[in-house]
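User: Structure tokens for this complex, please. No commentary.
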Amino acid sequence: MNADRLIRRVLKPLVFLLCLGPLAWLAWRAAGPGFGPNPAEFLNRFLGDWAIRFLLIALAVTPVRGITGWAGLVRFRRMLGLYAFFYVCLHLSSYTVVDQFFDWSAILKDILKRNFITVGMTAFALLIPLAITSTKGMVKRLGAARWQKLHRLVYAAGILGCGHYFMMVKGNQPEPLYHGAILAVLLGYRVAVWFRRASAARRNARESMRAA
Amino acid sequence: MLIQIRKRSDPRSSEITPKSAYLDYVSRRRFLGTAVAAGMIGSLPLPASAAAPKKAALQGVVKSRYKLDEPLTDTEAATGYNNFYEFGTGKTDPATYSKDFKPKPWTVAIAGEAAKTATVDFDDLIKPHQLEERVYRLRCVEAWSMIVPWVGVPLADVIKRFEPSSKAKYVAFETLNDPQRMPGQKSRVLDWPYVEGLRMDEAMHPLAILAVGMYGEEMPNQNGAPIRLVVPWKYGFKSIKSIVKIAFVEKEPPTSWNRSAPNEYGFYSNVNPTVDHPRWSQAKERRIGDSLFSAKRPTLMFNGYADEVAALYAGMEMKKNY
Ligand code: HEM
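Assistant:
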């Protein structure tokens, strides 16, 4: 089997199923032992946790590809990004359905009044156009350059997602900071690459001037 | 037996869940390294860990007039879903990480503006008083609630023994500060030791008790062994746990959550459905044990104890003195 087929036939389906793992686990809990003493909190936090994890995992594709040199990784990026969106949607649904039970006025008040929800909602809003334009057809329609520019919104969504988490916890709890640190490394990698490219470009320009 | 046992005619899945099965998630949801695999494995339930140390039944407890018509929260939930950051910030951390905690021997320092100040052994502090059972609502600031049968003694009776002076305007409480015994104190989630306080008239109110047990047994470690405060008309965090010091003071004492986030947690922190926490509404609450799709319940002014305590705050602006 060549590398392309291995990715298409084996690795992609495997990763696809793995990403459903948290959901399967949730289904098992729902059917069996239940969600514990505060099921609404359990569900919402579980989904929030996986939303931020998948967002970070999707953001890790480019740096890991750069460091390992495994170009094939990029072929998992869309799936992982869509999974992040998927878990954000489930997290938002659990808030809307279980926590507020479609109390739209309470939800609207929350979005406007409670900063951590305003921030979470903004992150969600930023992810919507990215999910819509994730298809091959859309990439073509937008053109690669514009598509790439648009998809830089994911950096902002990552920052807002981590901010939402940080703002939500009580006291000085470290978990949001761990996530923030990981995000900083993932975004820092991109900044470093950008700087290196920029200075390489300057060096090239200087050298070609000297040569001229 | 003094405790009403809830009728089990209609068990919900959460009620028949062994504690260990649902205790696993929240405590181990901390991001496990960075790996997906680690995260997924970390979410899988582990086999039951060693059971919590068995607590002795309390003898000679009398029922009090403080009862509620609502069913008691299951013991499993009341002792398995806790906020007690001295043992970790996850809801199941206190039960998990307090297993080795030895609450006895225990002394409480009585200090400050009083005729009698001393370091008193736990037994000497409690023995002179009649233990009573008080079934109270417990309303957490996080908008969930329980119905708990506490066993304890009126705080006022204990206070009177030490003859506070006229300068004693407030009572300040302090939790044990010992990171070796309370591993959660190794991280600076809050400024340790945890401190709380009441105005003298609040502390003297008959509803306020020093609790030494619940569900007819000695206080479980995760609920604040061996002795804790219970002030049912205030948010749960006011009911300070594992008390080592009670001081009578002239000025309003600092309180831990107020120091951590002054705009979110005031000194009074009375349960009040009309004053929202900046990050969430306090109008409603989730009753622990309710199912995923049960509606939230309306939160009651002073947690349902308005008739008894509203007079304490007559003329006070509750929005300012939150
Ligand atoms: C990119 C988008 C988002 C991400 C990555 C995200 C992630 C998270 C995380 C990690 C938590 C903390 C979970 C925990 O403590 O274990 C959380 C909590 C929460 N999120 Fe989100 N979230 C997002 C969007 C939203 C949106 C749009 C809403 C609602 C409009 C929302 C509502 C909440 C609520 C209410 C909590 C607090 C739950 C509680 O206090 O128990 N989130 N979120």
